[in-house]
Design goal:
The complex is a heterodimer of chains A (807) and B (152). Chain A is of the alpha+beta class and 807 residues long. Helix content of chain A is 42%, strand content 26%. In chain A, the strands form seven sheets. Chain A has a seven-stranded mixed β-sheet with strand order 5-4-6-7-3-8-9, with helices on both faces. Chain A starts with a strand and ends with a strand. Chain B has 152 residues and is of the alpha/beta class. Chain B has a five-stranded parallel β-sheet, with helices on both faces. In chain B, helix 1 crosses helix 5 and helix 2 runs parallel beside helix 3. Chain B starts with a strand and ends in a 13-residue tail after the last helix. Classes of the chains: A alpha+beta (807), B alpha/beta (152). Chains A and B meet through helix 19 and helix 20 of A and helix 1 and helix 5 of B.
Chain lengths: 807, 152
């Protein structure tokens, strides 16, 4: 065992035992030379077989040169065959590709050969410059394997890695698989130890040292100390062993504790001295055995100790590790782990689903791959804040799926510290896809804003009450202004305490009433504002449910203006009524007057006419023609006046009489009028052309009079014509539908058209055509009362047409 | 033979003259009694006032009644005539210038037998009187009038 500690040759490292597996991160050729030359120098001086595997940045020739420069007797060692310097192509990539098993076995082979030749052990180095990315994984696995077994061999291994080729992740991998690393810091070489490794290895080494010490007291050794020969006979067994395994002496190598040992020993018989270790399970307990081949007889000495706890811990750890892995893999929550350099080291299936990325595609890549281009910097900044130790855990970040869709994810992250609790080894984060929730929130917010605006901007007062307590929950600005009370005076108060609405709800009792009825409406509620203004409002309340709460909403509308307007209207209506009544009275008086007047005016006319006639008859013989003519004129005048009186009376009646509106058949009416006229003028040749089916809505009596006048006129003015042709129908004139009466009479000059409808205006003398000129005035008045218009078209000698519309 | 009397109730003297003339021209030679207002008309018909000693056995054959009368107007006279059992059936012809519908309705409602409008044209007036006379005095069967019977 005293051979176990060896000189490393490197100052900062000092002495190291067999089984040391360490690495160096170099940048320059000088780095390599500075380390490897003294390394191998020490090895050569201490009877160790040396193997130096080079790479392109420090070739075999260069290595040799460097060694020679340091030690003049180098060539002697070379001659002796103690050192091999070969390129990687002949070692790592011997068959063109890296084969982990081949290399591993190769080392052991070399060691065996060395030991056979009488060397103490094997000291080696390998430059990993040749490593491609595709080999990295398998090489790392290989390093791990080396790391696990090298403790059993008399070997010292130094692996050199180019810093230029290693990213942070690679460095971590490397360090993990070596006992320690040699790194240049500020120009000086420093040792960097993997803590996990260090602890375990140290523990184990401590255990072994303890063993070694205890081995010198086999009898009292609480460990198991057993010696067997190659034949399988148990030569010695200490007390502790017998206590533990009473049947040991008896069963020998058949004992479960020793089963398989001889075979293993033989397999490891290439070890002339030294030991190997194994773990056996006996009755559920685990024992680690250090097996030494000792003496010339090649006896096998076994030092064993119970590592059950340790094993359990290991198993537990493994179980836990499995459990955790399963947890991560099957968890519904997306979980991601990244290293202190923000490279993704774990990406569970849930996260794969979230992002569309496959775990294998993102492992080792920077965390920012998940974020959209324009948000990468910001997102990483927020993530970094987590790692800086600031006290916040949750952040919303945009995540860009591999298909381009943008999701919003809630990140909840936590740092994982090393066993000292000082350094962060990783960060684990859980993501939660809240895209839909965010959209809903937005929609909700928009909707809320919309309705909030409604509430705020409404031009009516709105009051919200809690339906159970009657307390005011909210009041809108309009009501605040209307009543002149500040907002805070409303909130939380029961409605009846406000006093404004005392008429509806003077007390809680009233409120309960209010609660029961779903809908209440007060049309005209008097209110008095804070500054004493009187106003009238309309109060409407109804009750509805919002989630689990019942709310009473009261809408209060200021109807003061409206009420005033209504009162105005009522007042005006009253005035109108009075006026109408007064008008009625005036009309009646007028009617009486007209009647009286016409009656009284007729009597003198009768006298005039009568006595003129008497004169004509009685004095026929003594009157000359001229006198007779005078008397005739007196008579005519009297008759004319009588006619005028009648016409005036009729015209005023048309204006005064109440219209009784009905659906009227104009065609039938026209036929009746036509028949009467025909009857009254049997000696005239008249043809009437009356369109059938003409109806209208109006006063039948008045319309009849109108038609009588129009037809009568037509008949009158067709007097000179041999055959009178009078038409009645409906047509389009002056851009609208109008009824018409057309004749083939003497027509009229359009120049005087505006005089046609004026009362007593005539376009001909009495001698030409009889009449007082009232007919068309009557027609116009009747048509006007129906809301229509009347107009005429005529040409002298070519007849006339009279058009009228009705409402 | 008892003479058939015509009672003319008319306030306008011109109209009276003209009516007389018209009757003459129509060769109606019956006795014409003229009352110049409503009161006088009723006195005559009912045998009151100045005519209290009139022989009530001889009632007029027909009464030509104008509507616009002083003291008691025509429609009132008609009413009273119709309300007295003695004169209930007495033929009354309203002879007036009025064409007012109300007068027409009231006249008939109150029991006038006929309603004639006086034309301004005298010839037409003569013709109207002629027709009147012919009808009421010749053609028409006068209702029986037994004034001696006391209908209680």
């Amino acid at each position: 065992m005293q051979e176990e500690i060896r000189k490393s040759g490197i100052d900062v490292i000092g002495n190291i035992p067999w089984g040391t597996h360490f690495c160096q991160f170099y940048q320059t050729k000088k780095d390599l030379v500075d380390t490897l030359v003294p390394y191998f120098q020490a090895g050569l001086e201490n009877n160790e077989y040396c193997i130096w595997v080079t790479a392109d940045n420090l070739t075999v020739a260069e290595a040799r040169k460097a060694m020679t420069k340091a030690n003049k007797s180098f060539s002697a060692y070379v001659k002796k065959g103690q050192i091999e310097i070969l390129p990687y192509t002949e070692w790592y990539l011997r068959d063109g590709s890296f084969d982990s098993e081949r290399v591993l076995n190769g080392w052991v082979e070399k060691l065996n050969q060395a030991l056979k030749k009488g060397y103490a052990g094997l000291r080696l180095t390998g430059n990993t410059l040749w490593l491609e990315k595709k080999d990295w994984r398998s090489f790392t696995d290989y390093e791990e394997a080396v790391n696990n077994v090298i403790g059993n061999y008399r070997m010292i291994a130094l692996c050199t890695y180019s810093l230029d080729k290693c990213g942070a992740a690679e460095i971590v991998d490397v360090i993990r698989n070596h006992e320690f690393a040699l790194i240049k810091q500020s120009g000086k070489w420093e040792i960097f130890e993997s803590s996990r490794y260090k602890n375990t290895k140290e523990a184990l080494r401590a255990a072994r040292d303890k063993l070694a010490y205890l081995a010198s007291f086999p009898a009292m050794n609480p460990m198991q100390v057993i010696e067997i020969d190659m034949a399988g006979k148990v030569k010695y067994c200490n007390d502790s062993t017998i206590k533990l395994f009473p049947a040991m002496m008896e069963k020998g190598i058949q004992h479960p504790y020793l089963i398989g040992l001889i075979e293993m020993a033989r397999t490891h018989s290439l070890l002339k001295s030294g030991y190997f270790s194994r773990v056996v399970e006996v009755n559920g307990q685990f024992y680690e055995q250090l097996v030494y081949i000792v003496g010339d007889d090649k006896d096998i000495r076994i030092y064993g100790h119970d590592i059950s706890e340790h094993k359990q811990a290991e198993d537990l750890l493994r179980e836990t590790s499995n459990y955790l892995n399963n947890l991560l893999d099957y968890a519904n929550a997306p979980i991601i782990v990244w290293d202190p350099h923000f490279r993704i080291s774990r990406f569970n299936p849930a996260f794969e689903r979230l992002t569309g990325f496959k775990s294998k595609d993102v492992l080792g890549l920077g965390l920012d791959i998940l974020f959209p281009e324009n948000k990468k910097v910001e997102s990483m900044r927020q993530i970094r804040r987590t790692l800086s130790g600031e006290r916040w855990e949750v952040v919303e970040l945009p995540v860009l799926r591999v298909d381009g869709e943008l999701r919003t994810v809630l990140w909840n992250s936590a740092n994982v510290y090393d066993t000292d609790g000082k350094k962060i080894v990783a960060t684990i984060a859980q993501g939660q896809d809240i895209t839909e929730r965010k959209l809903a929130e937005e929609a909700m917010k928009t909707s809320e804003t919309k309705y909030r605006r409604l509430f705020e901007a409404a031009k009516d007062g709105i009051l919200l009450l809690d339906a159970d307590t009657g307390h005011i929950i909210d009041v809108n600005p309009y009501l605040v202004e209307m009543l002149g009370l500040p907002y805070r005076e409303f909130i939380g108060k029961p409605l009846w305490e406000l006093g404004y609405f005392r008429d509806i709800i003077a007390s809680k009792a009233n409120f309960l009433e209010l609660q029961k009825s779903k809908y209440i409406r007060y049309e005209d509620l008097p209110l008095r504002t804070v500054d004493g203004r009187e106003m009238k409002v309309e109060f409407v309340s109804n009750i509805y449910q919002v989630e689990n709460n019942k709310i009473i909403q009261c809408n209060i509308r200021d109807i003061t203006k409206r009420k005033l307007a209504e009162e105005e209207v009522n007042k005006l209506n009253e005035i109108l009524k009075h006026r109408a009544a007064a008008l009625e009275i005036a009309n009646n008086e007028l009617e009486a007057f007209a009647y009286s007047v016409s009656h009284d005016l007729r009597a003198p006319l009768r006298s005039m006419e009568g006595f003129s006639q008497a004169l004509l008859e009685d004095c026929f013989d003594i009157l000359n023609d001229e006198c007779k003519d005078y008397l005739k004129r007196i008579q005519n005048s009297a008759e004319l006046m009588a006619q005028l009186i009648d016409d005036m009376l009729r015209l005023s009646q048309i204006t005064r009489v109440d219209m009784i509106l009905n659906k009227v058949n104009l065609s039938e009416m026209a036929h009746t009028v036509a028949a009467k006229l025909k009857n009254n003028s049997p000696d005239r040749k008249i043809t009437f052309e009356i369109t059938a089916g003409l109806t209208a809505y109006g006063d039948g009596k008045l319309l009849s009079i109108a038609l009588e006048n129009l037809f009568g006129n037509a008949l009158k003015f067709t007097g000179p014509v041999p055959e009178a042709h009078i038409e009645f129908g409906i047509t389009e004139n002056r851009g609208q539908k109008a009824y018409f009466v057309r004749d083939n009479g003497v027509g009229f000059d359009m120049t005087y058209a505006n005089k046609l409808f004026k009362p007593f205006q005539r376009l001909h003398t009495i001698a030409e055509f009889p009449g007082t000129g009232i007919g068309l005035a009557s027609v116009q008045r009747i048509i006007q009362r129906h809301g229509g218009k009347v107009w005429a078209d005529g040409k002298v000698g070519e007849g006339a047409a009279f058009y009228f519309t009705l409402g | 033979m008892e003479e058939k009397i015509i009672l003319l109730v008319e306030d306008n003297p011109d109209d009276v003259t003209l009516t007389e003339r018209a009757l003459k021209k129509s060769h109606i030679l019956n006795k014409l009694v003229v009352a110049k207002d409503g009161a006088e008309a009723l006195d005559y018909i009912l045998g009151t006032g100045n005519y209290s000693d009139r022989d009530m056995n001889s009632m007029p054959e027909v009464v030509l009644l104008d509507l616009k009368l002083p003291k008691i107007d025509g429609l009132e006279v008609l009413k009273r005539i119709r309300s007295d059992k003695r004169t209930k059936l007495l033929p009354v012809v309203i002879l007036t210038s009025s064409k007012e519908e109300n007068d027409l309705i009231n006249g008939y409602t109150l029991g006038a037998n006929s309603y004639i409008r006086k034309p301004v044209n005298f010839n037409q007036f003569v013709e109207a009187i002629h027709q009147l006379g012919l009808y009421w005095l010749v053609l028409n069967e006068s209702p029986p009038m037994d004034t001696r019977k006391t209908n209680g």
